[in-house]
Amino acid sequence: MPVKTFNWNFVTDQRIQQLKGQVRAKEERIVQLETENAVLHLKLAEYYEIIGRSNSKAVQLCSLYNEQQDLRRNTYLNLIQICQEVQKLKQELKDFQSFSRLLVSNFHHQYQECLSQIVDAVQGTQIENENLQSFQARTVDLEQSLQEINELYQVEKRKRKELHNNLVELRGNIRVHCRIRPLLPFDTESVEPAFQNRSISLSEKVIHAMDDETVLVRCNRPGHPLFNKTFQFERVYSPLESQTIVFGDVRPLITSLLDGYNVCIMTYGQTGSGKSYTMLGPHSESDAISPSEADHEMGIIPRAAGELFRLLSKNPTVNPRVEVSIVEVYNNELFDLLAKDSSGTIVGVKRDVITTKEGKSNVPLLTYELVESPAEFMKLINKSLQLRVRHPTLVHADSSRSHLVVTITLTMSVPFDSYVDQQSSQKLCKEILCTTPQKVMKGEKPSFPLRGSSPASAPLDLTEQQKQVQTKLQLVDLAGSECIGMSGVTGTVLRETSFINRSLAALADVLGALSEHRGHIPYRNSKLTHLLQDSIGGDAKLLVLLCVSPCQKYLAETLQSLGFGSRARQVQRVQAKRRNLLVSGKSK
Ligand SMILES: Nc1ncnc2c1ncn2[C@@H]1O[C@H](COP(=O)(O)OP(=O)(O)OP(=O)(O)O)[C@@H](O)[C@H]1O
């Protein structure tokens, strides 16, 4: 046998090739698997990411779930609470319902009661209404009769006043008015250290106007007995009453002047009590007084001038002549405040007062100025006020230290038969001619400067059947009485004060002597009383205006003034006489 030779190399190569093919296939498979693995890894990564996101969502959902669980639990708890509350409310509602039912039944009961009460009340009201209506009708009747009684009372009061005034005139009594001034700032200022801790009670009002004729002094100081006293006067002005009201009572006296009466108006009172205010109105050295209707504070003097010229302007046929003299009594000396020096400047010149043979007072050489209007008149007043002596005292910072006497002499020509009483006219004519220093011929023009002449010597142009009538209006602003201790004055002012007090005491003495009808009346004890002799004791219509302060501080002085006024009222002089004739014209 042949030994066949086997080719091992070939088989090995084949096998290697085969294995290599298998290795390649395996390697390809590995690559494929690795690729797949990589893809799977990628996918895994994606899934991881998705899982991560899902996890966080799951966590969120879990917390949401937890929250919801909490909420549910809370809601459940709340629900339980609410249920309990509802139960409670239900119970309360039940209670309330039963209470309401009780209330309603009570209310109903009360309502019924009220209703029956209302019915009763309505019935009562109807009865009351009927009563009221009848009362109203009665009230209207009563009111009407009260008004009638009131009107009657006013008429009677006026009549009584007129009668009283007539009686005062018939008896020749001095008419006394009293003016209570308002409390002023200086009333509360203390006078001296000793008074300082009492200043509150010192400024207390103790003087009151009870009605328009009665002053009440009522003082109730601790530790003192009650002082309660009334004083009667013809008129009492309360602190509220104005200058216009005061002048309203003075106005008729101006008419009297034109009717032929002599008139004298004087203010009396303690220093600072309102005398100059009442007579002149507010004024000062720098502030002149001008007559103006708009000035409600104007005093009697400017108003009297206005009224006089107003009345004269209504009756120009009387051919009036108005002359003025102004005199100051200072330290018992008389000064002519219209006297002029050689340069024509007004200077105060000393004059004297004498008594004529007929027993009348006269001031020789006194200056009389002719005035034709209130403005001219006030110009003279203002000039003379500049000369008037004033000094401050503790009571009044601008105290007048002299008595001021303004005299208006009115001469009129009137029809001869307008005055009937021939006999008395002849007597008067005689009287006046005797006191007249110059003889005046019928119809003669005055051939004199008015200064230094008596107004009685100035005749007017008289036509047939006319005669001259001359009347005098004296306006007197007295200096204020004062307590030397309280006014705190020394030196010159002290001397002035004692002169003022002495002259006022002399005035009181004259009134005392007149009221007692003594044979001798001490007019000559003082220049003041001597000058005013004819007005005080004669036949002039005399009005004394007492000025008083309302406060307790000046009680003593006020009582002194009220006492003076009361004594003045008692004085019975001759009845006021109408001036009939001065100088006859070409009379029948
Ligand atoms: N009725 C009143 N209304 C308002 N003020 C008044 C009144 N009365 C007085 N007075 C004021 O009181 C002060 C004192 O008044 P007045 O000067 O008139 O006093 P008097 O009595 O004249 O004093 P004296 O005697 O010292 O001169 C003034 O300032 C004045 O203006």
Shape field: elongated
Low-confidence stretches: 420-453, 456-460, 581-588
Main sheet overview: 10 strands, mixed
Give the N-to-C terminal Cα separation.
Answer: 233 Å
Strand fraction: 15-25%
Please tally the helical runs, counting DSSP H or I stretches of 4 or more residues. 12
Overall pLDDT score: 82
SSE succession: HEHHEEEEHEHHEEEEEEHEEEHEHHHEH
Bound molecules: adenosine-5'-triphosphate
How many E strands?
Answer: 17
What Rg, in angstroms, do the CA atoms define? 58 Å
CATH topology assignment of the domain at 172-436 and 469-570: Kinesin
Structural class: alpha+beta
CATH superfamily of the domain at 172-436 and 469-570: Kinesin motor domain
Give me the CATH architecture of the domain at 172-436 and 469-570, please. Answer: 3-Layer(aba) Sandwich
What's the CATH class label of the domain at 172-436 and 469-570? Alpha Beta
Q: Helical content, roughly?
A: 40-55%
Binding site for ATP: 269-276
Coiled coil: 16-43, 132-173
Pfam family, one: Kinesin
GO molecular function: ATP binding; ATP hydrolysis activity; microtubule binding; microtubule motor activity
Give the topology:
Elements: H1 8-171, E1 175-180, H2 193-196, H3 199-202, E2 207-211, E3 214-219, E4 227-232, E5 235-237, H4 243-259, E6 263-269, H5 275-279, H6 300-314, E7 321-330, E8 333-336, E9 349-351, E10 354-355, E11 361-362, E12 369-371, H7 374-387, E13 390-391, E14 399-400, E15 403-415, H8 422-435, E16 466-477, H9 484-487, H10 491-515, H11 527-537, E17 541-548, H12 555-570
Parallel strand pairs: 1-5, 1-17, 6-16, 6-17
Antiparallel strand pairs: 2-3, 3-4, 7-8, 7-12, 7-15, 8-9, 10-11, 13-14, 15-16
Helix pairs in contact: 4-6, 10-11, 10-12
Adenosine-5'-triphosphate is lined by residues 181-182, 184, 269, 271-277, 282, 396, 399-400, 479-480, 547.
